[in-house]
Design brief:
The chain is an alpha/beta fold. Helices cover 36% and strands 11% of the residues. The strands form three sheets. Strands 3-11-10-4-7-5-6 form a seven-stranded parallel sheet. The radius of gyration is 24 Å and the shape is globular.
Length: 458
């Protein structure tokens, strides 16, 4: 495979023009400059170049992925200012890190080990933002007594089937009553914010949910639904086609800041496409355009996910390297390489579920930031956000997936979020307590007040 890949790269320039091949944006063709590479520490287990066969449904029709791990990129955030001082005697630039979610103690993806020096507080109007959380599992229409969940199901067919069932339940009226979605719109009091954000895991899931939602709305109303429902699509959609136009029912990710100008009332999007970088606002006072958000999935890293493994090994290296004993540089480097290779292999083999997670606190902080950033899209302007957790896996005992009286943090990620936030808010260090309150206080309050999760021994 390695030789075949090298042949493809060597012949690409010759064939690309006549075959109109697109190089994309990957690292195969765009190599970082030598001056940048020398600033980045090598990966602790050494540079890794390899292939991964990814077949989530075990159908034999998977995809072959190429990956090249060069170094610990996050180190630049912490050492860009002094990376050249030892080798060249040169001072680097002044660096200001402003992402508030870089303080998430224990998270392998978000947390940076540098103490915050200041906090930029919101205006008083922004401080009035409030969150209301609901856990609302849905009964499976085909299996008596079972509730619907997507997380943990690896079969694409099963995931889409359950997403369709969730969508249809929320869209159809229940006897003489309004549909759950119609009722939700009545509970969003601000007329300019009567929009619902639906979050799934992948772009193909977003398209399927949007399609079913539009079809079910048309069936219920007896009239065609045009632009009321859209699925978010990546900006690469239509690349290389000069006459390509966004099809009806789709919305480009780069256009998100303008979404309030679009007539849609429903946006269906992958969690990680919406989590950061986009403020979707409405009105002269620049309030959040969405009044409610529905989490159709409970996000957990997929076993064997390379991105998660890279985040975790980089985080591991930043904790371990400062503890290494001083000695011969070759011996110390060899010892680090051996330990890191063992850790890397362990991470790739790991198949733990949320309930089995050996380092649940790190997992909880990582997933909490992802969820909280999505909820943050609904809080701009000091408004009220209504948050619905639909996937039964959010609280397995409450949803009757487990035969036990109530949930604990082992069976409910929502209770896990509540526990780590309570710990942060009770930290002995007053600075840490203040940070936790400023960054995550509204979410902690909403979780504490949520009545729809039955707590064990409550």
């Amino acid at each position: 495979l390695d030789h075949a890949l090298q042949d493809v790269l060597a012949e690409w320039p010759t064939a690309s023009a006549s075959l109109e091949l697109d190089r994309g944006s990957g690292s195969l063709f765009y190599q970082p400059s030598d001056s940048l590479v020398r600033l980045v520490p090598e990966a602790p287990m050494g540079a890794v170049l390899g292939f991964q066969y990814y077949d989530v449904d075990s159908t034999g029709d998977g995809s072959l992925r190429f990956f090249h791990i060069r170094g610990v990129g996050r180190d630049l955030l912490l050492h860009l200012h002094d990376a050249l001082s030892a080798s060249d005697g040169k001072a680097g630039p002044q660096v200001i890190l402003t992402s508030s979610t870089s303080w998430a103690p224990g998270s392998w993806r978000y947390h940076l080990d540098t103490p915050p020096g200041a906090i930029l507080l919101p205006s008083r109007a922004e401080e009035r933002a409030t969150v209301e959380c609901f856990f609302s599992p849905i009964l499976d229409p085909e299996i008596n007594g079972k509730t619907l969940y997507v997380s943990g199901r690896h079969s694409t067919a099963e995931r889409l089937r359950n997403l369709r069932a969730m969508t249809q339940h929320l869209t159809r009226p229940e006897g003489p009553y309004q549909s759950p979605f119609d009722e939700e719109f009545t509970r969003i009091k601000d007329e300019e914010r009567k929009r619902i954000l639906i979050l799934v895991a992948r772009y193909d899931e977003a398209e399927e949910v949007a399609r079913v939602l539009a079809e079910t709305l048309a069936e219920v109303r007896g009239t065609a639904v045009t632009d009321e429902v859209v699925a978010l699509v990546p900006d690469r959609q239509g690349e290389g086609e000069w006459a390509w136009k966004t099809p009806r029912g789709q919305y480009l990710r780069s256009m998100l800041p303008r979404f309030s100008k679009y007539p849609a009332h429903f946006l269906v999007a992958p969690l990680q496409a919406i989590e950061r970088g986009h403020n979707i606002l409405v009105g002269q006072s620049q309030r959040a355009a969405f009044g409610s958000v529905y989490f159709f999935v409970r996000p957990v890293p997929h076993p064997g996910d390379l991105h998660t493994a890279v985040h975790r090994i980089n985080r591991w290296s930043q904790k371990v390297v400062p503890t290494l004993e001083q000695g011969q540089i070759a011996q110390t480097g060899h010892a680090l390489r051996q330990r890191a290779s063992f850790e890397w292999d362990k991470l790739l083999r790991e198949r733990e579920t949320y309930r089995e997670a050996s380092d649940r606190k790190a997992l909880l902080w990582t997933q909490l930031v992802l969820v909280w950033q999505c909820i943050g899209r609904l809080l701009r302007g000091g408004v009220h956000a209504r948050v619905h957790f639909i996937d039964a896996k959010w609280a397995e005992a409450t949803a009757r997936l487990l035969n036990q009286a109530g949930d604990t943090e082992q069976t409910s990620m929502l209770l896990g979020f509540e526990r780590i936030l309570n710990e942060a808010l009770a930290d002995p260090d007053p600075a840490h307590r203040a940070l936790a309150e400023a960054l995550y206080g509204p979410f902690a309050t909403a979780l504490q007040e949520m009545k729809s999760v039955h707590r064990a021994n409550a």
